[in-house]
Amino acid sequence: MKFSVSSSLYYHINEPATLICSTSCHGTEGQEIIDESLTTSREVTRTDLTVGLEANRLVKLEVLTPGHLSVDYQATVNTTLHLVDAARIKPKSSGAFEAVTLPYLNPSRYAPADRMRAIANDLFGGIRSPLAQALAVEDWLFENISYQIGTSNEQSWSLDTFESRAGVCRDFAHLGIAFCRALNIPARYVMVYAYYLIPQDFHAVFEVHLDGSWYVIDGTRKAPLNGMIRIATGHDAGETAVACLFGDVRGQGIYVSTQLAVDEEELFVPLTRESLRGKGKMLVLG
Prior knowledge:
By secondary structure, the chain is of the alpha+beta class. The protein contains five helices and 16 strands.
């Protein structure tokens, strides 16, 4: 399925500053970037960076003079749908995980699984298979956490969300990741563009590693699982921030759009957790 995505970040710069932005789509085996561009509203010094275990694409922008700045990105991306029969997903012991997945069992800044282990075991320890546990985590998030803008900030972590029973997509993902890692299921944070997300914004989900593949989980259930375009992947939001600002910089808003590409002829059929369960399938994100 071919999508057209775009985003703009708006700032006012009050003194020489540096911005590190992550809005560019990530090219993967299941996600082809057909065309893209990243521009700024005025002259800056730009450096493209590749960072982290998943080689996230960042851009460093150095701004010398005060004034308004917008950072504008657009891309056309083709994603390949990969569905797996849930019945064929076999559990593995932690010793059998590939080396690239082992870091995603470790506690992280916003998802300290070691501090959530007792809660996770109490809620999900009686469920036998890792796949069933991961899906039970998603169900629990959807049923017990209220999606409320303004209830958290950049310092909020998984226990805050568990105690307040409220948060935004980032908080849902952090709590789900902490639960899964506490249950010895590797889990990682993913920032995406999301088709059908209302209102349009950057969106956070997470993935769990089971029997050799990463499967997407979204406790908010606010967007179809097959309408997500990967931007960045990491331990948590600390490694996938849309922007990190250094200097006297004031944010003045964002714009995000995810649409079907104008030349896409295939009909988009939303895949939700409910529809995937009905088919006995799990989805691998591009």
